[in-house]
Every structure is written in structure tokens, then in C-alpha cells.
Amino acid sequence: MNDPSRESAPPRAFELETTPQLAGLQSARAMATAGPSLIDQSVPTAVRIAEFNAWYGEFQALDSVQIDIPARRVTAFIGPSGCGKSTFLRWINRMNDLVPIARAAGTLDLHGTDVLARSLDVVELRRRVGMVFQKPNPFPKSIFDNVAFGPRLHRKMSRRELEDLVEWSLRQAALWDEVKERLDDSALGLSGGQQQRLCIARAIAVGPEILLMDEPCSALDPKSTARIEQLIAELRESYTIIIVTHNMQQAARVSDVTAFFMEGRLVESGETTRIFTQPQDKQTEDYITGRFG
Amino acid sequence: MTGSPPYASRRGPNEYPARSAGRRALSNRIFTVVCWIVAAASIVLLAILLITIARQGWAHLNLGFLRNVPSRNPAEAGLGPAMWGSVWVCAVCGLVALPLGVGTAIFLEEYKPRSRVVRKLHAFVQLNIANLAGVPSIVYGIIGLTVFVQAFDLFGNANEPRFEIGSVWYDQFIDESGQYLSVSIDGRSAPPAELRDGMAATDDFGHPVAIRVVSRDESTGETGQVLAGSEPFRFVEKSWYYLQLPFGRGVLAGGLTLMLVILPIVIISSQEALRAVPNSLRESALGMGATKWQMVWRMTLPAAVPGIMTGAILAMSRAIGEAAPILILAGIVFITFTPHHLMDDFTAMPLQVYDWASRPQDTFHEVAATGIIVLLAVLLTFNAAAVFIRQKFQKPLS
Are strands A129-132 and B180-184 parallel, antiparallel or unpaired? Predict the structure, then answer.
């Protein structure tokens, strides 16, 4: 891939395998099939969702959700507790497969890959769609082994290549300078904010196209939160980021596109500045102005 | 008082008769004292036991005791072969129980089924493993006897196994110089060798000798001369890799029987260790595109290893002290050697102690106490190792 906008691409000899779908992003054919995204015609769609419904057993968690997530932008999902935004996020990388009573129907399309297909290689999907969870959860291994865990799953790499990749991932996650002296120390010795950045580095190391973040800052102090928001702004050049957040100010600061969910329905979505200054739906306005939380 | 209570008597919380404060404090004190007494009683009991044993057995405790073989003279009796027998049996037991137990625990914990029928089967297996942990170990001895020692008598009996490898059979004649001349024969069931002049044999030192059949008058007492009409003795040489089926009363059968005893314990403690790995770590691993096996092998199992090791060491310390299954399997045998191969006879430390304790002489009772001291020291070392490992390696997993 010789995309000039990817200035943060690894300057090493190894090349992360280009999936056909990712290469398709560059080709004109993909541009033509990608629908108009929420921002403007020039930004292609990374994930296309239409008529998406999800259930936990008998309870319907999501109802007819329709949205086009733009590529290389930050999309924020906001809404009150229990509105289905985390459920929606977990369907994008099929993490809800772990919940026996969860099922979904509709269109969930990732660069031409039907995510809901039964025959889908879920392992490869999860490599392409990384996830960062609410509570930082590094493995009880060394910092190096944490970041190297993902690459070791998918590729055969020599020790030198792994060291390069780990350094690149930690630099991308703005953690390298703080840990470069102690890569063999246990990851559990890091502070909360550092652990969350480590989890981001870990997710990046497998070379995903999309990063899902489920309230990544809610367990962190304000200083670490600011650091991570800065990191998100840096990462959006290379990855499509979807972030679920309870914090409206964070959504306003960090995202390009915001989608407001309530009780399983997507009430309104659009450019962040427009949503926060001129919401078209009354419910959106009520939520944003804090009339209910 | 604001608001009225919902019941008819209309009394507030503070309007009921109080319990006596003195009575409450007194019963609190009594309970504390009772707890102390109970705790002290168990410690005192343990101390009495240890001191009695130490006083009885201290006199005979020396390095010679650990090296000597059992003898009819209590002053010379030693624990050597019993210790080695215990080592061999526990090694076999551990090598088989650990992979089997950890594998079962992984299967029960990580590969939980979805369909209702298989889930019921799963619960059934889980329940029965818990039951097996409580079965008296003598029952396992009987199982071991039937299954391992005799193999249900399907392959001949233990003393005449149908299959064996690693054994070389000879018929031996005594020659006129007093040496044993060995003639090799086909196997266990070969007919007795016929004494013929010029037959090839080997002497006691391994040199080839040609047998010359002589009559009593012709005999000159030289090597190689065998009296006519001599009957051969059957002799077998078993190398270190000797194996027979059925296993017979050997180390392998003993080890497998002990494996049955500790397997439920290993499974349950491994399951606990696997459960202690938080689910958030599993989700993270799967979220990065790991297959289930990769997640278990690369993340869950390494994280659970300290807990599994602690459980395994405690299970092994139980195995070392088990006398009943070995009693049924091997019985009380007078063993003066360490086992040479997996099918060899053996004895174990608890059994040796039992043997000495049931002799009438008092000195043997003292020697039994010495054996108990050694056994307790081994158990203490095992448990200390388990605690040490737990302290050092069991890091918080989140």
C-alpha cells in the first residue's frame, strides 16, 4: 500500500498482509460501491449498516438501525445507559458470538464482507476489527509479550521482526518512551492510563482497519483521559475509529461523526458539530442539553 | 416521628423492649473464648502427635536409616528401598495424572457446550468428578488390582503374562565346577531345554562354553561338564525397558492406581485455577483474532499455571501418603532393592511403616516412628514448596 496519508505506516521491510478488501478501498470500484457517507461524498464508507436488528433472547436490543460509518474518521455512539450502543459495537466484530442468546439480522457490511454470514471467518474478522474495552485488561505477561501476543497468533515472525513491530505499535500508542526501558516487566505494573494505551498498542499490532472502543476512558483519571483523546486524534489518520462514550463532551471533542441511540433505535446521526449545535430531533436535543442522562 | 408505620401496633423502631447489654457482651466473650479453645485444641493435638513420634523415633534417625534395606534386625533396618519405591510410583502417578487432569479441566472449563443435551452430560461429568474425589482410596486399590494388575484376566494372569517385551529367557544347568551355564531358549512357554553334548551355553561371566555331558565317574569338576540327567532351571533376565501385559504387581500398576486416586483432585484444582482467569482477558484474546485453542494455550493456561502447580503438588503429597491402594496391589513384601523396571516389585514408605508397626518387637515400633518422621518431613517439604510457589508466582490476574 502506497497511500501517502498513511505517514505512520511502519518503515520496516515487513508488510502487513493486504487483504483484498483493504486493497479494494483504494480502487475505484470500491469508491463506486461505497454509499454516500455521513460527511460528504469524498469520504468512503467503512461499515455499512442497514435494517440491523439485534436480540438477546426475546428482548430486542436494536431496532432497524441504519448508518454508514465513514472510513478514517472517528464516529461516536452516544446515548443513555441500556440504549444498545455497546451491543451494536460488539456486533461489528462478532464478539456477541460469545453470548449464546444473542442474535442479529440485517445488513452489516464491512468493505464488502458480510459480517453476519454464518460462513464468515470470525478469526480473520477480529484481526481486521480491533477492540479496546472499558476496563484496561493487559494479560499477566510482560509488556513485550502483551503487544506481541496478537502478531504471534497470525504470523510467523523472527524475534527481531517482533521487536520492530512491538516498538512501532508502542510508538503509535504514544507509550514507547515510557516503557522502552522495561519491556520485560509485567504489564500489570503500569498505571491505568498506561495500561489502556498498552491495550490500544496491542490492538494495533495486528494491523486492523477499524478500531472499536467501548468507553475507553471511563475507568481513567482526567489526565489519562486527555492523553487517550489526543491519541485517538492521532490514530484517526490510519484507522476507522468507532467510540462508545457516556461522556458527551468527549464525543464533541474527539469525534467527526456522532450517532445518538435511545432504547435500541438510532435517533439521529450526522456531523458532530451539527448534532451538538443544531440537533434536528427533540430527543437528541433533550439528551444533549442534559435534560436526561 | 414523621409518617406512621404500616402495621397496626404503630410502634417505632425504638419502642420495643431491648435485649440486655450485659448478656450480649457476655455471650460475645464466651464465643471468643470457645473459638480460642477449639483452635488451641487442634494445635495441642498436633503438637502431642509430633512430640510423641519424635521422641519414639529420634534415636534411629541417621543417614544410614535412609540408605539401609529392611532387615530382621531392627537396629539395621532402613527405609531406602521404600523411599525409592515411593519415588518411582509417584513419578509414574504424576506423569500420567497431570496431563490427563489438566486436559480434562481445560475441556470442562473452556469448551462448554451450547446444546441442551450435551450441557446435561457436561453437568453429569462434573458432578461425578466431585463424587470421585470422596471415594475411599481402598476402592481404587481394588480397581487397580482388577484393571491394571490383572487386566480382567483377559491376557493371561499376572504371573504368566501373554505379552511381554524386553525379557530374555534361559534354562540353566549347574555344571561340575558349581557355575550356572545358561542356555538361551525361545521364551516363557518354551519346553525345557534338552541336555545334549556340545550344546552352546554361557557361563556366569558371559563367556561362551560348550556343554559336555558326563556321567558321575567321568566328572573332573571342570567348567562345562554337566551331569547326565540334570534338570534345568528356568531363569529370566529383564532389561530396564521390560514391559508385560497384564501389568502385574509392579510400579506401573501402582502408579496408575495412585493416579486414579489423585485425578479428581487435580481436575478440581485445575478447574479452580482456570476459573480464576478473568473473562475480560479471554475476550481480549478473542478480540485480537485468536482461535479458541490459541487463547487457551497461549493465554489462559500460562496464566493458570501457578494455581495448577499448587494443586498438583498438594495432590502429589496426598499420593505419597496413600497406603491402602498399594497394600491391595502389592501387599507387604520384603523388598531390598530399588525397582529396576516398570513392572518390578516395589514397596512404599507408608507400607514399610505399617509393616514395622505391626511387628511385635518394641524396637520395630521405634523404627516405625522414625519412618513416620521421614514421611512427615517429605510431606512438609511438598506443602512448603506449594505455598512458596503460590506466593511467588501467583500474581493478581487483573
Answer: unpaired
Q: Does the predicted model carry a pTM greater than 0.95?
A: no
How far, in Å, CA of B128 to CA of B120, rounded? 12
Q: B397 to chain A: which residues are within 8 Å by CB?
A: 140
What domains does chain B contain, in order, with CATH numbers? 64-153+249-393 (1.10.3720.10), 163-242 (no CATH)
Pairing of strands A240-244, A210-214: parallel
Q: Do B284 and A133 touch (CB under 8 A)?
A: yes
The Cα of B294 is separated from the nearest Cα of chain A by a number of Å equal to 7
B-chain residues near A126 (CB < 8 A): 286-289
Angle of helix A159-172 versus helix A143-154 axis, rounded to 10: 110
The C-alpha atoms of residue B56 and residue B16 are separated, in whole angstroms, by 64
- Nearest C-alpha of chain B: how many angstroms from A14? 20
Pairing of strands A113-114, A265-271: unpaired
The per-residue pLDDT for range A209-250, each reduced to its tens digit, is 999 999 999 989 999 999 999 999 999 889 999 999 988 889
How many CB atoms sit inside 10 A of residue A107's CB? 13
Q: In what order do the strands lie in the sheet with A113-114?
A: A59-70, A45-56, A102-110, A113-114
ipTM passes above 0.90: no
Report residue B4 as a C-alpha cell.
406512621
pLDDT band at residue B90 under the 50/70/90 scheme: very high
Is B288 within 8 Å of A153 when comparing Cβ atoms?
yes
CB pairs under 8 A between A and B: 69
